[in-house]
């Protein structure tokens, strides 16, 4: 089953980093968050990836083209011309297709543009800016058992502000916001049938709007409720939080050895 990753947006809310490179290439622990997401899927046995690139797509292509250079020790032997020896090659069991899906294409359009690489088969889809400890095999199993066209992972994001319980004008309690105070949101990590392409009109289709709304209205959109760790990297503050978790050695999304 192929994994499609949306990696073409501008990342304007983390412009401190994204003005230099696409958001999925912003690093956590010295590796692009895109790499972390791919390691998650690979842990569960999904090794074939289709990257929907757009903004600064050449940065993504160059990183994969030079994967050995970035992740291995090298000897540059100038006595023999431009010979390069790669020591202890660090590689992944991955097949990666990077597709330029356009600079301003919306999410639905990006998905439709990689249709030829997906083929007529069930596929996985997620965003290139969020990590999680979701059990992908359980997600896929639920999707297959339910037999619907689409299943997305629903998550409860952590709140950032305190919560006040109010009666009239009197504050009866003030406490830190917990997950249960928030609503379920789309956390990505979707399983989709190829027929969902019929719900996408073209480049200007936002997948989260008409396609998902239609699927929901037809009873074809299911959710896999995930109460564990999930964190998107929407702002510099989010990046710093993920960095701290990685540096602590307690990153919940790191399930691989």
Write up this protein.
- The chain has 9 helices and 16 strands.
- A hairpin with a 5-residue loop joins strand 5 (73-77) and strand 6.
- By secondary structure, it is of the alpha/beta class.
- The longest helix is centred in the C-terminal third of the chain and has 13 residues, at 236-248.
- The two termini are 22 Å apart.
- The strands form 5 sheets. Strands 1, 4, 7, 8, 10, 13, 14 and 15 form an 8-stranded mixed sheet that branches.
Task: Please render the helix and strand layout as text.
Elements: E1 3-7, H1 15-18, E2 27-28, E3 31-32, H2 33-43, E4 48-53, H3 57-65, H4 67-71, E5 73-77, E6 83-87, E7 95-100, H5 107-113, H6 115-118, E8 123-127, E9 130-132, H7 136-146, E10 150-155, E11 162-167, E12 170-176, E13 185-186, E14 190-192, H8 210-217, E15 221-226, E16 230-232, H9 236-248
Can I get a quick summary?
It contains nine helices and 16 strands. By secondary structure, it is an alpha/beta fold.
What are its keywords?
globular; 257 residues; 8-stranded mixed beta sheet; two-stranded antiparallel sheet; 28% helix; alpha/beta
Largest sheet: 8 strands, mixed
Strand count: 16
The backbone outline, from C-alpha atoms, is globular
Strand content: 25-35%
Q: What string gives the helices and strands in order? A: EHEEHEHHEEEHHEEHEEEEEHEEH
Radius of gyration from the alpha-carbon trace, in angstroms? 20 Å
Query: How many helical stretches?
Result: 9
Going by helix content, strand content and strand pairing, the class is alpha/beta
Extract low-pLDDT stretches.
Answer: none
User: Ends: how far apart?
Assistant: 22 Å
User: Percent of residues in helical segments?
Assistant: 25-40%
Rounded mean pLDDT score: 89
